[in-house]
Design goal:
- This protein is α+β, with helices and mostly antiparallel strands.
- It has helices spanning 16-32, 38-61, 64-73, 81-91, 93-106, 156-173; strands at 118-130, 137-149, 152-154.
- The chain contains six helices and three strands; from the N terminus they run αααααβββα.
Length: 177
């Protein structure tokens, strides 16, 4: 055991920057994934969880003064990361949605602080197209996944890109980058 250099529960990920890089990696991986594959669903799950749980990691990196200000301005039931998470949900709709789907999927369903207007949906569609060589009309059934918030439908990758962009704004606002 003397050769152990990182004794934690984080697999060598040691800062919010590491988790931010993981979020970039997750989003990038969605670019090449086969649509409606099990890998796509796994990546959606992982990306939502990573995007939301960056709150825990960023909180650890913040100065004591920033934490005190957040707790004073956004009191939560506990004076901990919960205050910061409340601020993040108010600041970013994309991260609010990530919170709902990350915790809803991670815990199978969301029992506390559930927003029933936010959910994931899979839809079937029949696409009709013309074969390029024969000119014959063809049909193909496809399944599409969306994240729904009220009357808005988001492609998961677009929502995750927005969440990533929002993290840049939040981090810059606290002098972290």
């Amino acid at each position: 055991m003397e050769d152990v250099w990182d004794k934690s529960k984080r697999f060598g990920l040691n800062s919010y920057r590491d988790l931010l890089a993981k979020l970039d990696w997750e989003i990038e991986g969605l670019e090449d994934v086969v649509e409606n594959s099990i890998e796509e669903r796994y990546r959606y799950f992982n990306t939502a969880v990573t995007a939301w749980h960056l709150t825990d990691w960023v909180w650890q990196a913040m100065s004591a003064e920033d934490r005190r200000i957040i707790v004073d301005q956004h009191p939560a039931s506990r004076d901990t990361v919960t205050s910061f998470q409340k601020l993040v949900r108010l600041t970013s709709e994309a991260l609010l949605i990530c919170d709902q789907v990350a915790n809803g999927s991670k815990h199978f369903e969301r029992s506390r602080h559930d927003n029933p207007d936010i959910f994931t949906a899979m839809t079937n569609a029949m696409n009709i197209y013309q074969h390029i060589e024969t000119g014959e009309l063809m049909q193909k059934e496809t399944v599409s996944t969306f994240i729904v918030y009220g009357d808005s439908f988001y492609a998961p990758i677009a929502l995750f890109r927005k969440a990533r962009s929002d993290w840049d704004l939040i981090l810059n606002g606290f002098g972290l980058s």
